[in-house]
Design a protein that fits this description.
Strand content: 15-25%
Order of helices and strands: EEEEEEHHHHHHHHH
CATH topology of the largest domain: Jelly Rolls
Mean pLDDT: 90
CATH architecture of the largest domain: Sandwich
Number of strands: 6
Structural class: alpha+beta
Largest sheet: 6 strands, antiparallel
CATH superfamily of the largest domain: Regulatory protein AraC
Distance between the termini: 36 Å
Number of helices: 9
Helix content: 40-55%
Radius of gyration: 19 Å
Length: 253
Amino acid sequence: MFFEKEMLSFTILDVVALKQQNIHMFNSGRNFNALSFRIHADTVLKTEKKEYPMQDNTVSYVPSCLDYDRHAKYDDLIVVHFETTDYTTREIECFTPTDAETLHGLFRDILDCWNGKAVGYRFRCAAILYEIFAECYKQNYRQSIGLPKIQPSVDYIHQNYKSDDLSMQKIAEKSFMTEVYFRKLFKQKYGISPQKYIIDLRLQNAAGLIATGYYSLQEVASMSGYRDYRYFSVEFKRKYGVSPSEYAYNYDT
């Protein structure tokens, strides 16, 4: 679960306050994550699989590239848009904090800091977002029954997902279990298959490398765990909606 992550690296893209009524909006293909605190809300976020009601004081995380509908009688919120390669899911996650006042204050602080644009404001905003993550973690922390069994394998994935010889057998062996059992526990915990998780990590890494402009697209593919550039291109377009060359062109312009 996103709110149980002990560490995340990120890049803040924007911090926005929204106050809307009678909203019926479809969101598709957004290439950033969104972390929100709803001050006052009567809202439902709906994916193909599930509906997520949002009320006053709800904190929610919406992952990048997830299609969903937002229906709201009223929706008053502060939202942080950011990029990260440390967590991948295909589900919206939300909770009602036990100490909403503290989180509301932190979201207000990051909004004021972002809008103020004082010297060094990005560093200050990053510090506040770490405080928000820490508070969310503190209010959600609990011992997970299934996670310790597969944690060695998950750690191995994060350390080696850019390797082109990474295999599910090697991954499962790190937790001393069969591939079938590992896949089952992983899907229960993260909501997607381990293979899809690895692909998402690789493509997020590739997008970041392309954005730097330092590498050829063939180098990006190789550095992200792909031996076959054509396969990399197909997977990249499936996730981001454009080819790697089109993605690079958009950054150049």
